[in-house]
Sequence to fold (433 residues):
Amino acid sequence: MRYEQINNSLFIENRKRFTAKMQPNSIAILTSNDVKHNNADDVMGFAQNNDLFYLSGIDQEETILVLYPDAYKKENRAILFIKETSELIKIWDGEKLTQEKATEISGISRVIWNKDFENVLQAMAFEADAFYLGHNEHYKRATSNQQTQQDRMIQWCKEKYPLHTYYRAAKITRDLRPVKSTIEHELTQKAADISVQSFSRILKACKPGKNEYELEAELTYNLVKSGASHHAFQPIVASGKNACALHYNTNDSVCKDGEMILLDFGVCYANYNSDTTRCFPVNGKFSERQAAVYTSVLHCLKEGSKLLKAGILPADYEKNMASLVEAELIKLNLLNADEVANQDPEKPLYKQYFMHGTAHYLGLDVHDVGLYSRPFEAGMILTCEPGIYIAEEGIGCRLEDDYLITENGNINLTAKMPIEIKDIEALMNTKKN
Ligand code: GLY
Ligand code: MN
Ligand code: MN
Fold:
């Protein structure tokens, strides 16, 4: 693995917290994700299932975790099933986890080859009353047009054990994962630190005539060199009007003199993610209008992020942010104060220039699991990302930092990434000397 091995106390504690929430006499089965195939023999890569990783620390495909805290036999209380390696796998793919290594990473003493999963489970299934199974519960992107390993496990288990009761493992992990432990804070900080360095590299490389993908390459170079696994998501390098398409990521336009670039990127380190956005002028000097829009967004970030604190409801934080952005849109002469005063509250005018939410949980998923009906709590990590998008002027500006909520407020994990106009201009202009 590219990252320093994580202290397995993280996964041991996570399992304790998970099993404490299970119904009596039930078995949880968590599966890894599929390795996604390309057209022919190549693969699109592998991303571990984050609930499985959270409870085991195992990054390898074809892994199954079984937790049965009330099992009569102690040896059945936690079992990890991993892929058995072979001479052929060794020749083509290299080393896979040994059972000993899997124990060291996860803290689970019983590790068995996955070919024995069905037999071993059978011996436990009829002792238990219920199963917890994993499923993607993302409200928009839950799998609908592709069958996942989780779907196959649900189908198989329900066919084989139709009279058991079934529960959702994701309902437990969505409660646990938002509140992070110290180890998780440190891993996220590491991802954030790599982001900070990567941003400086971009500022040095940027000049009129560069293609957006050349700037993307600077990011990729730096994050791979720093031990990150990959981009947390396809980075957005959007010059000029491209910045007004919120998820633009083709990154294939030439950056022109006079334009501003919106750069939204994340680093995935040890499966934990950062997510940051900065904007900067292609030629190293903000125009008056770019500076005005930027100053407005920066004001909203500074003021809005103050409400990322324990006890505040996400809806109240977003309402406050919307008011901040609305006031800035009036100052920028994009909205008229009288029209705003008389607007239909169901269709606020600011939505024309500011159309997204500005805080999401950050963790093993960039948009991490967790309910937004829950007040913020110490230990959570959230982004703050206000933006103003003026398509008719070819200016899109978003600024995004990552905040750890503490007992007394929050800590900005990405505070070292330059954000003041004078600092960005100074850095961009130093490189030209
Ligand atoms: N890049 C997606 C986001 O900022 O949430
Ligand atoms: Mn982002
Ligand atoms: Mn974000």
Notes: The first strand starts at residue 26 and ends at 31. Residues 264, 275, 277, 400 surround manganese (II) ion (ligand 2) (CB under 6 Å). The domain at 8-177 is CATH 3.40.350.10 (Creatine Amidinohydrolase; Chain A, domain 1).
